[in-house]
Fold:
Amino acid sequence: MAATDPLACVFWAPGRVNLIGEHTDYSGGLVLPVALDVGVTVRVTRLGRRLRVTSPDGDAQRYAEAVAAELAGRGFLVVGVEAEVSTTLPIGAGLSSSAALGVALALALTTVSGETLDALELAGVAQRAETRATGVPCGIMDQAASILGRVGDAVLLDTGSLHFEHVRLPTDHAIVVVDSGVRRRLEHSAYAARRAELERGLAGSRDPVAQRRVRHVRTENERVREVVQILRSTPVETSRLGAIFREAHESLRVDYEVSTPELDELVELAYAHGASAARMTGAGFGGSIVALVPAERASRFTDDIVAAYSGTATARIGRAAAGACER
Ligand code: GLA
Structure:
């Protein structure tokens, strides 16, 4: 194990984009995220008594302490480390930069402490550490995607049973992520309020808001199933995918109320510029949209959508990549 040579201890965890299954992962629903080839690197430079983790934005220390506390809570003897964090992920763009950080730190701290956890246990540690560090009662999707990612595949995860399968992505389409430039942090958003409203609805409240939140989740779980079925048939019926992604966006806009005018504009522009399917992705309240674009058109699409958008957007072609590892 690399712990005897700390200077060579480098851990990597990717960000993710979610194809479909939004705000379903805190009520045991289905999600279909893709790990990306951008992410967070944790470089352990020294082992010792203290835990000191530095990052350009200064946020890593509180995540590291939260991860260490979660691991200690499981009875692990966590070794102190000095570590540096670097990232190729845009922060606050809805690509799970904080989940990638948590996963990379959880992997680093368990490995140098000589402990092992299976993939979904590690995801659970990182998920709870995120809640501990930020107060956001997030689900497990982002951390699970960051660990379970596989080149060329999406991850279908049942967040209730934690059963997962990989689903091959069509090679004739590119995944394009368009960042609206509207920055948000989940602790400042209505994420926790949405979760509470959904839970009220699931507990039987007749309040129309709570009912709308429940309707979103029920229909969204159905859409995940349909999308997986479409991706698994040949040829992939992309017009059907487009219709389902549109419904998903509408459901997030109207029933879950997490979209923004900027995300709505980008989704419309995506279809107008040749995307087969597009919708907002991640928690919402800002961040990004995801679009499936015919591969030969993808590079032109990224230029066109950025030029047509009323604000300042950044468009990237995302590659479905492998999950977290020691490098
Ligand atoms: C954030 C959370 C996830 C999930 C999504 C919405 O990314 O961290 O757990 O709830 O929002 O689907």
Q: What stands out?
A: The pocket of alpha-D-galactopyranose is lined by residues 18, 22-23, 25-26, 96, 138-139, 141-142, 282-283 (CB under 6 Å). The mean pLDDT is 95.
